[in-house]
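FAQ: What does a multi-protein file look like?

Like this. Sequence, then C-alpha cells, then the next protein.
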Amino acid sequence: MPFLLLLATLAGATNLNAQAGVGETARRAAAAVLRPGDRIELQFRRDRELNSSINVNERGEAVFPKLGTLLVSRVTIGGLQDTLRARYSEFLRAPELEVTVLRRIVVNGEVRMPNIYMVDVTSSVRDAVARAGGVLETGNKNNVSIIRDGRESRVKNWDRADGPDTDLQSGDQIVVGRKSWLTLNALPVISTSVIVIGLIQSLRR
C-alpha cells in the first residue's frame, strides 16, 4: 500500500531502528533514504523461510519475498523496518522482523586489503579504511578522497572526525593516496648524498 509506505517514510527521520543506535552519525543514517547498491538483510524470528539478503537495483527497487517488487528509494533507513512490518502484516500475523541495511563501498589505494565491502549504514571513512586493514606505510593519511558520482572530494580529518563529510553512500570509492617518491626515499637519498659528499671531500685532499 503506497499510503503505508508514505507514512513510514515521513516517520523515518525520528523512528530509529535497532541498527541506528544513538548519536549524530546514527541520526543522519536513519534519516537517509535507501540508494541503489544498498543491501537489505531481513531476519524473521518465526517465519525464517522468508529470511533474505536483497539488493536495491539501479531503479531504487528491491524484490521482497511474498511482497514482490517495491520502490524503496523514497523510504528512509529509519522507517524501512516499520514499512516492511506493515506490508508483511497483510500476509503474516504480527510479523517479528529485524531489518539491517548495508552499503556497498570500494576501498582502494594504499590500504592492506583493497576490495569491495558491505558496511553498516553508520560506518564512516575511518571505519571503511579500518575494514580494509588500515593505511600502509606507503600511504599518505593526508591524501584520502571519496569518489562519488564521478566527482572526487578530499576528506580532511577522516581519521579523527565522524561528521557529514565522512558519511558513506553505496557506490562510494575511497582512495588512499601514496606518499611522494621523495618522502618514501628520503633516507636512501640522504645516505647516498652523504656518501657522494664524502667521496668528493676525499678526492680534494
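And here is the next protein:
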Amino acid sequence: MKIVLLSLAGFLIGSIPTGQIIARSRGIDLQQAGSGNIGATNVLRTTGRLPAFFTLIGDMIKGIMAVLLARYFEVGILYEGMIGIMAVLGHNFSIFLNFRGGKGVATSLGALIVYAPLAGLATIVLWLVTVLITRYSSLGAIISFSLLPLTVLLFDAKEKLPISVLMSIILLMRHRDNIGRLIQGTESKVGKKA
C-alpha cells in the first residue's frame, strides 16, 4: 500500500504543469502555442528565456521531490526509481491537462540527480554539449538518454540499470515525432521563435 500511495504521489507531483502555469501568467496557452508542448523548450520559444529557466527548474524539482519522498519512506533502490518515473509519467500525462503534457526531459533529469547523481550529471553534460553544438534540444535529449544505461553502469550501480533503461525507453518514445523531424531536417532549433 505504501508503494501504491507513493506512486500516486509521484504522479501527482509530476502532473503539476509548471510550464503551463508560468506561460499562463504571461497570457499564453502553451498547448495552443509553438509546438504545443508544456516543457522549457516551448516556453523559451513562446515566452522567453527567464520563464523557460523557471520552467526547467520547476520541472526538475518535480523529479527531485518524487525520489526524495520515496527515499524518506525507505522503499529501496528499485522503488525509488519507479516513483521517480511516476513523476515523469505525471509530467507527460498530466491529470490537470486531460492527460496531455510534455516530453519529460527535465523531470527525468531531476529524478536522476537524486537517484543516480553521477549518471545524472553526465546526462546533463551530454545534453548541454549536444544542444550547444547542434542547437537541437530534442537531439540532446535523445543522445543523452540513449546513453543513460551506459552512464549508469560507468558511474553508478548496476542495480539501477533497469530503471535507467525504462527511463530511456519512455523518453525516446516521447521523442518519436522529433526523431522523424530530425531525419527530415524540419526540427526547430533552440532559440527559434514560435
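Q: Is there any per-entry metadata?
A: Some entries carry free-text notes. For the entry above: The chain has a mean pLDDT of 93.
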